[in-house]
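can u pls check wat happens w/ LKAUPR5Q
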Amino acid sequence: MSSRGHGRAWFVWGVGVFAYLIAITARTSFGVAGLEATARFEATASALSAFTVLQLLVYAGLQIPVGVLVDRFGPRLMIASGAVLMCLGQVQLAAATSVPAGIVGRVLVGAGDAMTFIAVLRLLPAWFPASRVPILTQLTGQLGQLGQLISVIPFALVLHAFGWSPAFLGVAGLSLLAFVLAAALLRNQPAGEPDARMAQGLRETATAVSKAWKQPGTRLGMWSHFTTQFSGTVFILTWGYPFLASAQGVDPAVVTLLMSLFVVVGIICGPLLGGWVGRHPLRRSTMVLLIAAAIAVVWLATLLYPGRSPLWLLLVLVLVLALGGPASMIGFDFARTYNPSHRMGTATGIVNIGGFCASLLTMYIVGLVLDLLNNSGFSGGDLYSLDSFRIAFSVQFIVLAVGACGVVSCRRAVRKQMALEGVRLPPLRAVLSDNRRRRRQYRAELRGSRGRDGSSGSDEGKSTD
Ligand SMILES: N[C@@H](Cc1c[nH]cn1)C(=O)NCC(=O)O
């Protein structure tokens, strides 16, 4: 690609990331306005939680249809249409004064949001060389999370200074801007490149979905997303705040700081993980399992700690949970590398269902267990008591175990398929000892060459896995 073509690729990616960032702002803004929503809609806590649950249900339910539509119509149309839906949803919310009217707004936002991320990921292989895609996938996911900060800072400021309608109209304005940029500047692929869109009828669509699902690499992506994303999502969107502030007695300002760390950790670790995945494509599922194990261990330590956990342990908890976001992006890398480009949207949609289903399920069960313990008298009248959270949060170990079993069993199927294609995976132990041997050899050569002429040696050899 020419340097002009390169510039254009970064520009297209920038517009896509902006649209995704605004989708995250639209997704998270309602959570910031919880107290105002209670007063405006005169709603109970469970009616308010219906807003979030419904929005996420719409989001998860639309993933496969949207994936199919991305393959059919291309990312530009989907990103622009998603921005229009989110804009309409925020305008509806700005005007709504009853729970049903508010829910209509959130459903529109959930639908528009569902159309954005998959379509933005679909732009990457069309505009960039394959070697850059893993890092750019990570960067897309992490930069998008900055949308949460827009909700927490400028949106909250406008909400408190000018009220409900101006704040939501402001987010509607940002979605309108995303629409204009996408419609005017996005292109599905560089000029002169073949158009990967597939015009297909119902029967071909069903076949495409079934082929994407039958590909074990797609399911490996879905279980990877399922296993790594949910714990952090549940923590950030629902139960993290009451757990830290009420059960652990952390100062609210420190809680806000801990929650903001999520975004920062993702931005730092995402590209590192993306680079690692690019260098070790045959060890992606091992990384997924290691991060899932780290999440299980840090939860075990926090929930078993006698009494309230010290701040350092809560900090480690937040750091490890935040790693789950970048780790879940490995799932999309599986979808991309195990499916042809004309089926990538569909496969990405299947992967994206994993983490959001696990999150919805866990959010619901944790709430249910907290309610049950409170109604039984176990919580001593404190819905958010530490002992109740210890029991309720333990549900996560079951979800993690189910996810890890899914990863291991799909990985076996993928490896069997690779063996049939003649790709042999060297055992991890052999790779690690080979790496150690190369490092020793490199150091010895370096010492030798320094001894001879004082010059430095060549770069360290890359690992072979
Ligand atoms: N795994 C997330 C993205 C992410 C990255 N860091 C934290 N979260 C994901 O699946 N995103 C899809 C979306 O629509 O946001």
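The pocket of LKAUPR5Q is lined by residues 117, 141-142, 145, 229, 266, 325-326, 328-329, 352, 355 (CB under 6 Å).
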